[in-house]
Amino acid sequence: MKKKSVLLIFTGGTISMGENPADRSLSPLNSGQVLANIPELNYLDVKISSDSFSPLIDSSDMQPENWVKICELIAENYENFDGFVVLHGTDTMSYSASAVSFMLENLSKPVIFTGAQLPVGVHRSDAKENLITAIEIAAAKNAKGDAIIQEVCLYFEEQLMRGNRTTKRNAEEFDAFASFNYPLLAKAGVHIKYFPEYCHYEKKKELKININLDNNIAILKIFAGINYNYVKNVLSTENLRAVIIETFGAGNAPTCEWLAELLTGANRRGIILFNVTQCRAGSVEMGRYATSHQLRRAGVISGRDITTEAAVAKLMFLLGQNTDNEQIKELLKVSLRGEMTVELRPKS
Ligand code: ASP
Is 235 inside a domain boundary? Predict the structure, then answer.
């Protein structure tokens, strides 16, 4: 049987850093140096190749053009590999995994993001286990020879999660990511146990990449004591096309008149308003409390249980593809890549 092949895409972050033994300072390692730190990779029955950003970047510097680069590398190499592993800094990994999930259309191979809390060249590093298992998942096939995972995922500390459902939840612990609103797709213990009933499968079609993204969006976080000037300034941002309103609980905001007026005005000016809860788990339920009635009247759309990271990515993606606001609003209400809990969009 032909050996399975996986392409590693190095973007940067802690996972590809080493410690200088003299002064313990951290600096980026090239892909060869990272792989040399993990000799166990030689025992995997997988042909590993790699490509790399140059220079490697801290993920705080990730920009839409970097997401385009990741997608282009996957598309250029799509036919030649069974799966892809993206090595990425942890800080913005959930944003990147979400963005790439929207940008890659008709994906039928695994794209697994992973990283580490401690550099690969440090004794107690989590890089080794995360990378080795991510590669095994990217190469895994079922009995029929199909890839078990055919979507963009994030693997970290024994958990395989749908990428666009994840959030970085801890800056210190190895268990740094969570998928609060969607079950795990696999759990790694002695064996890697997959849960295909939760996986997303597209009809087999040619891979398409959507590289147009529009970042004219803002996040308006509602807080107790929020004031008029802050909201007005956010909604007056030049070229603004959409706003994620991070609301309390099940999608609630203060009932004051000035807020309703500012939001109604923004909606009339063609700014799309998208309601995402500040809670890590649970869902927006507009209309459940009186405190969300006025949002609905102002034209705010429910983001249900979408994460802020996925909402950012979905808006940039939809604004980049469409100019028609009504169409964008309709697409915000449906799940395109399993990013929120509603009926999946009927396939054409
Ligand atoms: N600042 C780093 C990054 O996101 C942190 C990490 O990789 O864990 O690139």
Answer: yes
Question: What six digits make up the tokens of 221?
Answer: 């976080």
- Co-location of 178 and 238 in the same domain: no
Closest-CA residue, ligand 1 atom 7, reads 89
Q: Is 14 a catalytic residue?
A: yes
What confidence tens digit (pLDDT) does each residue in 4-53 have?
Answer: 999 999 999 999 998 887 888 888 899 999 999 999 999 999 999 999 99
Taking the centre of ligand 1 as the mean of its atom positions, its distance from the CA of residue 58, in whole angstroms, is: 6
**27, 29, 57, 90: residue to mutate for ligand 1 pocket, most atoms within 8 A of CB:** 90
What three-state secondary structure class fits 120? coil
pLDDT in tens, 98-126: 999 999 999 999 999 999 999 998 889 99
CATH number at residue 196: 3.40.50.1170
- 203 shares a domain with 115: yes
Report the atom number in ligand 1 closest to the C-alpha of 57. 9
């100019």: which residue's tokens?
323
Question: Element (H or E) spanning 293, and its range?
Answer: helix 290-297
- Give the whole-angstrom CA distance, residue 265 versus residue 278: 24
Q: Report if pTM > 0.90.
A: yes
In a domain, 344, yes or no: no
Q: How many structural domains are present in the chain?
A: 2
Pick the residue whose CA is nearest to atom 8 on ligand 1. Answer: 90
**Which burial class, exposed, middle or buried, applies to 55 when counting CB atoms under 10 A from its CB (0-12, 13-18, 19+)?**
exposed
Range of the structural domain that residue 130 is part of: 4-209
Q: Which residues line ligand 1 (CB under 6 A)?
A: 12-14, 58-60, 89-91, 115, 117
- Residue 264 belongs to a domain: yes
